[in-house]
Amino acid sequence: MLVACWGAKGGSGTTVVAAALATLLARAQGAALVVDLDGDLPGVLGLPEPDGPGIAEWLAAGEGVPPDALGRLEVRVTAGLALLPAGAPGQWAVEGRGDVLAALLAADPRPVVVDCGSQPVGHRLAVAAAAAHSLLVLRPCALALRRAQRSPLRPSGVVLIDEDGRALGPDDIEAALGVPIRAIVPWARSIARAADGGLLAGRLPGGLARALRKAA
Ligand SMILES: Nc1ncnc2c1ncn2[C@@H]1O[C@H](COP(=O)(O)OP(=O)(O)O)[C@@H](O)[C@H]1O
Ligand SMILES: [Mg+2]
Predict the structure, then answer these.
(1) Could you give the number of structural domains in the chain?
(2) How far apart are CA 189 and CA 207, in angstroms?
(3) Rounded to 5 degrees, what angle do the CA atoms 157, 129, 161 make?
(4) pLDDT digits (tens, 9 = 90+) for 99-109
């Protein structure tokens, strides 16, 4: 099962949701893979910056790579959770390799959660478009909603970040996008602290776990 998380704007909580979902799936199913297409996952998972090659190098290497090359890039996060790191930025993906990456991830027997970043294009768009669950992580902000409506990518569901005092409610968002809200995640200091302290794999905040348990 391939789950893509993406945002319409940066700072939406996309990386936090992707890391938390992968942690929950690894616990529930014994194994899961989380794929970093935006570069921030090691920070929220409490890992040092990976110094080896990652997805960017794999995409740039083209079709000459051995069949097991992608698997060899994996880094251990916990007993059940592995990370495919983003690799170094600024490399050119060989044409068509985004589609190959999407197909390989979709065929993985483990649940796979991908952080596709905000406003995905190129290989990030290819992976998000191929996902069984394409989750838009959205703060209840009119500008983010407008961007989501203009996006070439149509989500299969929304993870709404719940913030006090916003005029936009879940019904408005469902009506504007025409897709269901799969989870409502609270905007909470405990979540910010856990994310910024790199604790999302080790000590997932209860409110985040409860909110996301049925999202994918
Ligand atoms: N539900 C939440 N409650 C509180 N803070 C959050 C929540 N989700 C994300 N944050 C904080 O907001 C910032 C941006 O989150 P992040 O997941 O990196 O967003 P994005 O990946 O969409 O750019 C981080 O500092 C993170 O700790
Ligand atoms: Mg991010």
Answers:
(1) 1
(2) 11
(3) 30
(4) 999 999 999 99
What CATH number is associated with residue 108?
A: 3.40.50.300
Among 74, 73, 195, 58, smallest CA distance to 137 is for: 195
Residue at 79: amino acid letter: A
In this prediction the pTM is 0.97
Query: Residues enclosing ligand 1, CB less than 6 A?
Result: 7, 10-16, 40, 118, 161, 185, 187-188, 191-192, 195-196
Among 2, 1, 4, smallest CA distance to 158 is for 4
What SS3 string covers 120-165? CCHHHHHHHHHCCEEEEEECCCHHHHHHHHHCCCCCCEEEEEECCC
> Is 178 buried (19+), middle (13-18) or exposed (0-12) by CB count in 10 A?
exposed
- Ligand lying closest to the C-alpha of residue 17: 1
What 3-state class would DSSP assign to 84? strand
Residue 162 pLDDT > 90: yes
Among all bound ligands, the one having the nearest atom to the CA of 13 is: 1
Domain that includes residue 171, residue range:
2-212
Ligand 2 centre to CA of 64 (Å) is 30
> Which amino acid makes up residue 83?
L
Q: Are strands 81-84 and 75-76 parallel, antiparallel or unpaired?
A: antiparallel
* pLDDT of 174 higher than 80: yes
Bridge partners (DSSP) of residue 2 are 112
Question: What is the reported pLDDT for 165?
Answer: 85
